[in-house]
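Retro notes (design track)

What went well: tokenization of the new backbones is finally stable.
What didn't: we kept losing track of which sequence belonged to which structure.
Fix going forward: every design gets posted as structure first, then sequence, in one message. First example under the new rule, 245 residues:
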């Protein structure tokens, strides 16, 4: 992920976070128009994400929840809000994301690790998850935006099984590895308990998008475990996502 050193004046940052920023080198690592992400190198190495008030609460809750299990998510150092913004401050995991050159240049190994890591996530306990009905929530959001897709929404609702811990945005930029050794997941704001085929769709999508080919699909699915994949449901979720675009 890109990092550009900047001068950052943190007078508007909540007082609980300011001590970490004092005398630190700060880099802009933003990759979304909806949030500013800063890489902080000081007494700790961490990321500070700043977005509109209320928009980072889900990411905070899911990151904190998943950090309980084998450290598959970074530790939350602080989560604060002011009148206009949320501030989420999390530890920086060692390594680089799945789009780093060192990973992209070995696509077969990348697809395998990517599949195994998703299977591990989907094997985690779901008890106590703050968002236990993610598929239904996402379908309702689509229903609110566009009533022309009611048939596909109805089909997905009738077939979806919300029984695994999903990432909700399972793309290569959101997995951190150190020389292909898994270190954790990031950007977990769309996660919760949902249907595994939602993540499987996005895993296949990102491999095709970032590797410019779909030839690594089978490696990904084999590494995940074909016995856990329902081809009909995967096709249905693919139809849903294509309509949602």
């Amino acid at each position: 992920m890109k990092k550009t050193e900047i001068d950052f004046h943190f007078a508007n940052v909540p007082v609980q976070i300011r001590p970490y920023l004092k005398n630190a080198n700060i880099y802009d690592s933003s990759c979304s128009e909806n949030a500013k992400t800063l890489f902080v190198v000081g007494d700790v190495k961490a990321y500070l994400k700043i977005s509109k008030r209320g928009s980072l609460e889900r990411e905070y809750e899911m990151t904190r929840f998943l950090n309980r299990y084998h450290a598959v998510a970074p530790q939350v150092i602080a989560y604060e809000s002011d009148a206009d913004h949320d501030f989420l401050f999390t530890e920086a995991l060692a390594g680089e994301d799945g789009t780093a050159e060192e990973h992209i240049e070995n696509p077969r190994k990348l697809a395998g690790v990517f599949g195994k890591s998703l299977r591990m996530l989907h094997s985690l306990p779901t008890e106590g998850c703050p968002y236990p009905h993610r598929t239904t929530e996402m379908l309702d959001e689509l229903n609110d935006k566009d009533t022309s897709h009611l048939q596909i929404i109805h089909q997905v609702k009738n077939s979806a099984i919300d029984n695994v811990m999903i990432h909700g945005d399972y793309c290569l930029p959101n997995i951190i590895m150190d020389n292909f050794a898994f270190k954790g997941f990031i950007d977990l704001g769309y996660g919760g308990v949902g249907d595994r085929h939602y993540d499987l769709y996005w895993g296949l999508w990102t491999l095709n998008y970032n590797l410019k080919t779909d030839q690594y699909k089978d490696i990904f699915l084999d590494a995940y475990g074909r016995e856990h994949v329902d081809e009909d449901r995967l096709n249905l979720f693919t139809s849903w996502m294509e309509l949602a675009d």
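Added context from the reviewer: DSSP finds nine helices and eleven strands in the chain.
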